[in-house]
């Protein structure tokens, strides 16, 4: 792991065809974090008895957004990625709950338990939806943490809606500034890659979602054992969501340009990325993003996969905690 530019070759870039833009599912929880979280939940809480720990919020267009809201203290809002749900953050929710934080995670429209929307499956609406949730919950001094597509959602939300409400931001294995190849981003991936993803999703989404987690967690690397429960949980979360929303979201995570959003963010922002990320290659993502941020810090993890929040949850949780408390 290194705190500066890593010189390891970007081997994952062209292995992306099967699995670009997928998001890790946090299912491996360290025993210490689990025990601590259990203790925290058993202890008396100052949370109002009227507070709902999971609920549905009706958004202004009638969409039902599912969210979890546990604990008290400084709020941390977790933003999952394509095509998963708030359950992607299990390891982080339990850990930070045990550390005395209020933890919130939502299922993005069209994903998880939220409405399977046919419209609004793009970044402007995603960010607006988050703003409605934050306003509904009255959150202030919040830390927003986004993984992969969720990192794009964080960038757009913080830049356009977060003034006066956001304390810090974290982008983990995130898609900004932009994934697709353009004249301004010649290192990006050709649009045919994302067309291929749409084709696979439309033809056999269930099989596609069996295949994506393998490079997502680097289970295709020599010496890395496939964890079947992790693959099953990734598939479970993906299949709960809506096919139309997932199809549209491929355009949202690949073609949205977050350059101006990153430039507009002034709060301290941590950018975390694995150097063997086969889904979102770090050189065209993290290394470019941190140069656009006014107050950004880059932390690279040597050889870690896109789904490092799952495979290396204990280490990343500690680093996240250190950044939040700094």
Describe the secondary-structure layout.
Blueprint: H1 31-42, E1 54-58, E2 64-70, E3 75-79, H2 90-98, E4 102-106, H3 123-137, E5 142-147, H4 149-161, E6 166-172, H5 191-211, H6 213-216, H7 228-240, H8 243-255, H9 259-264, E7 269-274, H10 286-292, E8 296-301, H11 308-311, H12 313-325
Parallel strand pairs: 3-4, 3-5, 5-6, 6-7, 7-8
Antiparallel strand pairs: 1-2, 2-4
Helix pairs in contact: 1-2, 2-12, 3-4, 5-7, 5-8
Search tags:
single chain, 326 residues, alpha/beta, Rossmann fold, disordered N terminus
Mind explaining what this structure looks like?
The chain has 326 residues and is an alpha/beta fold. It has one domain (13-39, 56-325): Rossmann fold (3-Layer(aba) Sandwich), CATH 3.40.50.1820. It is 40% helix and 14% strand. The protein contains twelve helices and eight strands. Strands 1-2-4-3-5-6-7-8 form an eight-stranded mixed beta sheet, with helices on both faces. A hairpin with a 5-residue loop joins strand 1 and strand 2 (64-70). The radius of gyration is 18 Å and the shape is globular. The chain starts with 30 loop residues before the first helix and ends with a helix.
Concise description?
The protein has twelve helices and eight strands.
Shape: globular
Strand residue content: 5-15%
Number of helices: 12
Largest sheet: 8 strands, mixed
Query: By CATH's scheme, which homologous superfamily applies?
Result: Alpha/Beta hydrolase fold, catalytic domain
What is the percent of helical residues?
Answer: 25-40%
Contiguous uncertain segments of 5+ residues: 1-49
User: Do you know the CATH architecture?
Assistant: 3-Layer(aba) Sandwich
List the domain count as a whole number. Answer: 1
**Mean residue pLDDT:** 89
Question: What series of H and E elements makes up the topology?
Answer: HEEEHEHEHEHHHHHEHEHH
CATH topology value: Rossmann fold
